Amino acid sequence: MTTKHKPDHATHWSTRSLADELETSHNFVARVWRSCGFKPHLIRTFKISNDPHFEEKLTDFVGLYLDPPDNAVVFSVDEKSSIQALDRTQPSLPIVKGRCGTMTHDYKRNGTSTLFAALDIFSGKVIAKCTKRHRHTEFLRFLKKVYKETPKDIDLHIIVDNYSTHKHKKVNAWLAKKPRVHLHFIPTSSSWLNLVERFFALITEKQLRCGVFRSVEQLENTIYTFIEKRNQKPKPFVWTKSVDEIMTKVNRARQSLLNV
């Protein structure tokens, strides 16, 4: 019943609504759901890339992660835009025995910043720059920063997404003059392929989500301090999945959609 039919006036069953339908107890329904692993109230979202060259690009990226070129460094690059400098209207209460820390729901906005980050996939170190905006101008300025801070006798393979600023004509003109710099564009709707996203999740969890910032300057200083300390003892994010493993899951998902 749980998987075959939906209730008339809801998107999913609850233990009580299904119990009423079957004329049994909600405790019995709950026990059956637990034994089967059913959680009708939870939904997982998904996105399958429609890029016609998905497998070809996937092979390129997995190759960069698992078997990078000799005499080269691979950077995973992206921007985390609109990071808010939020101050709270009342002081937060610290964690104590029997109670978690608290933070008032009300906040004051003090501006935003954009974090450009280049994650060295081998060493785990991060090159970063905070800016007010995230146009092609700022992206190109950041590329030049990465270029200057890396050895001149090695190639740079830079992984980016398909954001329009990454393909601007001025960016392309600069790249044409820098033969040792190679941009690799991930497939559409495939941000999970860009390892720097994992770093953004880390800094959000460790520093930004529960932070209190009274100015953009304080926010940016906090970001720089976090990155500086992490770079002292960097820990790379290790890619483990092969192309075949990923394509097996992607093809399974595509087939499942065809069978719906």
Task: Describe the protein.
38% of the residues lie in helices and 18% in strands. With 260 residues, it is an alpha/beta fold. Strands 3-2-1-4-5 form a five-stranded mixed sheet, sandwiched between helices. Strand 2 (107-120) and strand 3 form a beta hairpin. The mean pLDDT is 93. Residues 77-219 form the Tc1-like transposase DDE domain. Pfam families: DDE_3 (PF13358). One of its GO terms (molecular function) is nucleic acid binding. It comes from marine metagenome.
Structure at a glance:
α1 (15-22) packs across α2 (26-36). The chain is α/β, with parallel strands linked by helices and 260 residues long. The chain contains eight helices and five strands; from the N terminus they run αααβββαβαβααα.
Number of helices: 8
Broad structural category: alpha/beta
Count of separate structural domains: 2
How big a fraction of the residues is strand? 15-25%
Q: Please, what is the CATH homologous superfamily of the largest domain? A: Ribonuclease H-like superfamily/Ribonuclease H
Give the helices and strands as they follow along the chain: HHHEEEHEHEHHH
Q: Do you know the CATH architecture of the largest domain?
A: 2-Layer Sandwich
* Lateral strand order in the biggest sheet: 3-2-1-4-5
What is the mean predicted local confidence, pLDDT?
93
State the name of the first-level CATH class of the largest domain: Alpha Beta
The residue fraction in helices comes out at 25-40%
Rg (CA only): 24 Å
The tally of strands reads 5
Rough outline: globular
Q: How would a crystallographer describe the biggest sheet?
A: 5 strands, mixed
Query: Which consecutive residue ranges, at least 5 long each, have pLDDT under 50?
Result: none
GO molecular function: nucleic acid binding
Pfam family, one: DDE_3
Protein name: Tc1-like transposase DDE domain-containing protein
Organism: marine metagenome
